[in-house]
Structure to design on (70 residues):
């Protein structure tokens, strides 16, 4: 899979915010639903915590698309 690079200046970004930044979802509400439904993987494992903190090097996949925090 080809991972889009998402650059952050802070130490971390929340999963739902990162998904919006990567244009995988349109709204925070949509992110909440797909995360809680177990459709999102962080570093290859299903993640159901929308507030999960992502750090540089973390990879997220959803609906055949993915991004990496850099």
């Amino acid at each position: 899979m080809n991972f889009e690079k998402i650059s952050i200046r802070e130490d971390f970004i929340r999963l739902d915010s990162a998904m919006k930044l990567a244009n995988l979802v349109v709204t925070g509400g949509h992110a909440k639903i797909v995360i809680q439904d177990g459709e999102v993987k962080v570093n290859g494992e299903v993640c159901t915590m929308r507030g999960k903190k992502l750090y540089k090097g973390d990879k997220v996949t959803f609906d055949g698309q993915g991004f990496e925090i850099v």
Summary: The two ends are 17 Å apart (CA to CA). Strands lie at 4-6, 13-14, 40-42, 45-46, 53-54, 59-62, 65-69. Helices lie at 15-21, 28-36. The chain is about 25% helix and 30% strand.
